[in-house]
Amino acid sequence: MAATVADAIVARLQSVAPADVQVYDNEVPEKPAARYWVLYCGLGIWSASTYGGEHSDNSVTFQLTTVASDQQGQMVAAQMCRWLEAKGVAALLGWKPTVIDLTCSTIGQVQLDNWPARDESVLAVPTVYAVDRFTLRAYS
Amino acid sequence: MSAIIDDAQVVKLAADMRRSAALSLVEITATTVRAGKNIQREARSAAPSGGHVPGYAGKITTSTKKSAWSIEAEVGPLQSGQGALGEILEFGTARNAPHPHLMPAADAEIPVWLRYVAQALGAGI
């Protein structure tokens, strides 16, 4: 069982990642893999369901950034990125994390009008990334 | 055979509905403009403001578009100067972390706005 929601999500992504795909947690190393997911997830916002009650309801919004690079060019990178993004979304959507001392809902997706975009930074290899955001509720 | 139809009540109802729709739109316009401003304020307060983007938050503005039967409010950074960095800041890039400030501001305000819209509609009928 994971210690935090973020740990549970990282483990979930690692369990479905193809062999050459890396999963990074909140930070991308200086020399990342050609294809990776990076999870940006905080502790969420705790609130009380009753006035003066215990802050036991947790609302977590997190972002999964899918990245693919390919020497053959941006179009190939974009196709790879889209494929990998779909795999990541499928692994998370509707899945219920198991976390110590927390009961979690299934994961839902935040509606975004985003599609794979070229990374405009000066990178050695054409790189495309896509962003997806998700939410879940949990209580302790 | 003939029938006499008294449509006075129907005519009155139609007039009431036209009047209530106009009244509702006035209130919905006001609450929508207010919601836009609230989102703008929250987004500005949560926007990154470090050394690289000192002027970014000030680029987040609200514009409203109104017709006889609709009201639209759009909140976001102007696409000039540091405002053009809005999408990169909100969603990050392949190697840079996101700084969510626009969508959380909208997510927080929309339920409040919907509540006021429902009240305005309820009051109008």
Structural features, described:
Chain A contains 2 helices and 8 strands. In chain A, helix 1 (5-16) crosses helix 2. In chain A, strands 1, 2, 3, 4, 5, 6, 7 and 8 form an 8-stranded mixed beta sheet that branches. Chain A has 140 residues and is of the alpha+beta class. The two termini of chain A are 15 Å apart. By secondary structure, chain B is mainly α. Chain B is 54% helix and 11% strand. Chain B has a two-stranded antiparallel ribbon with strand order 1-2. In chain B, strand 1 (60-66) and strand 2 form a beta hairpin. In chain B, helix 1 (8-46) packs antiparallel against helix 3 (102-124). Chain B is rod-shaped and about 85 Å long. The two termini of chain B are 38 Å apart. In chain B, 23% of the residues are buried. The mean pLDDT of chain B is 88. Chain A binds chain B through residues 26-28, 32, 40, 61, 63, 65, 67, 110, 114, 119-121, 123, 127-129, 131, 133, and chain B through 88, 91-95, 97-98, 100, 103-104.
The count of helical stretches of chain B stands at 3
What order do the SSEs of chain B take from the amino end to the carboxyl end, as H and E? Answer: HEEHH
Q: Gap between N and C termini of chain B, in Å?
A: 38 Å
Could you name the ranges of chain B where pLDDT drops below 50 across 5 or more consecutive residues?
Answer: none
**What percentage of amino acids of chain A are in beta strands?**
25-35%
Count the beta strands of chain B. 2
**Principal-axes shape call of chain A:** elongated
State Rg of chain B: 22 Å
Annotate the secondary structure layout:
The complex is a heterodimer of chains A (140) and B (125).
Chain A: H1 5-16, E1 21-25, E2 35-41, E3 45-47, E4 57-69, H2 74-92, E5 103-104, E6 108-110, E7 117-118, E8 127-139
Parallel strand pairs in A: 1-2
Antiparallel strand pairs in A: 2-4, 3-4, 4-8, 5-8, 6-8, 7-8
Helix pairs in contact in A: 1-2
Chain B: H1 8-46, E1 60-66, E2 71-77, H2 86-91, H3 102-124
Antiparallel strand pairs in B: 1-2
